[in-house]
Amino acid sequence: MSLDKAAVAKIAKLARLKLEPERQEAMTAELNTILSFVEELQAVKTDNVPPLTSVAPMKLRWREDVVNDGGDPEAVLRNAPGRQASFYTVPKVIE
Amino acid sequence: MSADEKNYIQGATGAWEIVIGMEVHAQISSKAKLFSGASATFGAEPNAQVSLVDAAMPGMLPVINAYCVEQAVRTGLGLKAQINLFSVFDRKNYFFPDLPQGYQISQYKQPVVGEGKLILDMPDGSSREVGITRLHLEQDAGKSLHDQSPNQSYIDLNRSGVALMEIVSEPDMRNSEEAGAYLKKLRTILRYLGTCDGNMEEGSMRADVNVSVRKPGGPLGTRCEIKNVNSVRFVMQAIEYEARRQIDVIEGGGQVAQETRLFDSGKGVTRAMRSKEDAHDYRYFPDPDLLPLELDAGWVENIKTSLPELPDEKKARFIDKLGLSPYDAAVLVAEKESADFYEAVAKGRDGKLCANWVITEYFGALNKSGKSMADFVITPEKLGGLIDLIADNTISNRLAKDVFALMVETGKDAATVVDEKGMRQVTDTGAIEAVIDQVMAANADKVAEYRSGKDKLFGFFVGQTMKASGGKANPAAVNDLLKKKLAG
Fold it and tell me: Which residues in chain A have their CB less than 8 angstroms from residue B63's CB?
């Protein structure tokens, strides 16, 4: 599998990354190097190997249904780029 | 006309069939959010229920709420669905200001609940099965307000991270009535289970409706998704409008574009959302912050044994054990509160008689009062007391309606009303005979006509006798005695 320039441009757009046209060629080559490395890995037979979900021998931790957080709008708004009363504000976005 | 043909709608080129599937987002009734300890309740001040996890501050990690997992499994069991002991959380990637993470934690290829089914109770008393494709757990997004400022949108993250169950149906529905019945039934089941309050006004239940049209028996048409419809009535209206729109597009020589649409409830129309071309490229991948969700089979079994009696089973019991019609049973089980009320009334009494009284008189008076069942003056004991007086012939069914009206008005119990107003039914044959004698004496000409063969006059004598007794004479006794006396 390899990517063309158009696919790379689309991925950049989806990731909200600004990719100048003159950088597209180089980025496409770089990503294709990574993909070809993954292809090399795929040569290994893994038919009987379950997918690895964690390298640590542990299970998902669960929490109780208890309210022990929140209640501090100032804390969450501290780094807000803009605010009005207790709302975050952003440039207008309308669907 | 076959059952299928009944569903067809007519276009200029002949009959069309509507195909409907639904994705319902149901908010889990939990205290805290799916992956954080912030409160999940409705109606707080903006951003007052937001943890740093919900605001997606760097370094914050999600930890799953055990209660939310349990409710998803409980709901799956209530939908007679496959419970997957191994499921995976994925990231669904998209950018929007009310989604601070830049992705929603959801489940994609391996949801916690697989295939199940739901039985629709149609208004004519018939039933129909709709397949459930899956149920998965996911986070809600925050809320954007666009009308507070001319050039800014305001963001409130209180909902961000609240636990949702997305319940996906198969495209098994064929008209708006079935879609409405599906939504109602799903809400009923969620309320019985206590996993979601089903409150559509507050947004704890929202429906995305997929609609397409096709020629009967033909291949499926291109579908449109109508997003975030928040009432049963609007879902039905949106489907009616959308099906007609698609038929008009196709018959006008055009093609239906696969797109997301919004329902404008004020105008009763759907319109296309301004769509971004890449809107559906979500690039799902397993969330590296979360290990797979693994459930213990014994734990699932314990939840299963703790399930309450569900509406379908209750309905079947009402029909089989209490002799109700499918329609009456469906009406009574639609809300757990109604079913409980009915059962309290029917305990040790005639099931059908009680059902008639609860559905017709009690619900009628309740609706008129505008009160909730808990606040209404008629308790199961009071209604039961009234029904006892009918059963032991103290009052007739007709007179009982007057007694009931007085009970609603005064809050008194049935026996008190009957005594105070002297409404006790007259079963004493001597008293009834006396009344009949008066009636016959006052209508000697009619008696002669009757005796000369005009049988139809019998009804007239019954009416006169009942009237003369102030409606209190026992109708069966009146019939018997009249027959004898008129025969001469």
Answer: 61-63
Domain assignment of residue A64, yes or no: no
DSSP character for B455?
G
Contacts of B85 in chain A (CB under 8 A): none
- Measured between CB atoms, which of B31, B96, B294 is closest to A67? B31
Chain B partners within 8 Å of A85 (Cβ): 46
* Residue B339 Rama label (left phi>0; alpha psi -120 to 50; beta): alpha
- As for the ipTM of the complex, it is 0.90
Q: What is the mean pLDDT of residues B301-327?
A: 96
Q: Is A91 among the domain residues?
A: no
Does any domain span residue A95?
no
Q: How far apart are CA B138 and CA B170, in angstroms?
A: 20
- Judged against a pLDDT cut of 90, whether residue B193 lies above it is answered with yes
Report the residue of chain B nearest A58, measured CA to CA. B291
Which domain CATH number covers A36?
Answer: 1.10.20
Choose among A61, A67, A77: nearest Cβ to B38. Answer: A67
Inform me whether the C-beta atom of residue A70 falls under 8 Å from chain B C-beta atoms.
yes
- In this prediction, residue B281 has a pLDDT band, given cuts at 50, 70 and 90, of confident
Chain B contact present for A75, CB below 8 A? yes
Alpha carbons B403 and B358: distance in angstroms, whole number: 15
Q: What's the pLDDT score for residue B313?
A: 96
- Does residue B1 have a pLDDT over 70? no
Catalogue the E-assigned strands of B240-397: 260-264, 269-272, 285-286, 293-294
Please report residues of B whose CB lies closer than 8 A to that of A86: 45-48, 156
* Structure token pair of residue B165: 């169950």
Give the nearest chain A residue to B262 (CA atoms).
A95
Over residues B391-410, the pLDDT tens digits come to 888 888 888 999 999 999 99
Rounded mean pLDDT of A51-57?
A: 79
Number of domain units in chain A:
1
Which residue range is the domain that position A22 belongs to? 5-43
pTM beyond 0.90: the answer is no
The predicted pLDDT at position B274 comes to: 64
Report pLDDT for B43: 85
Contact B256/B243 with Cβ under 8 angstroms?
Answer: no
Amino acid at B115: E
What's the confidence (pLDDT) of residue B198? 94
Contacts of B149 (CB under 8 A, 6+ apart): A84, A89, A92
Closest partner residue to B47 among A59, A68, A76, by Cβ?
A: A76
8 Å CB contact between B42 and B202: yes
| A41-55, B72-86, B304-318, B352-366: range with lowest mean pLDDT | A41-55
Nearest CB to B153: which of A13, A67, A93?
A: A93
A83 near B CB under 8 A: no
Which chain B residue has the Cα nearest residue A54?
Answer: B291
What pLDDT, on a 0 to 100 scale, did the predictor assign at position B41?
93
Q: B472 is written with which tokens?
A: 């209190």
Task: Spell out the residues 6+ positions from residue A91 whose beta carbon is closer than 8 angstroms to its own.
Answer: B151, B152, B153
| Residue A10 within a domain | yes
pLDDT band at B278 (very low <50, low <70, confident <90, very high): low
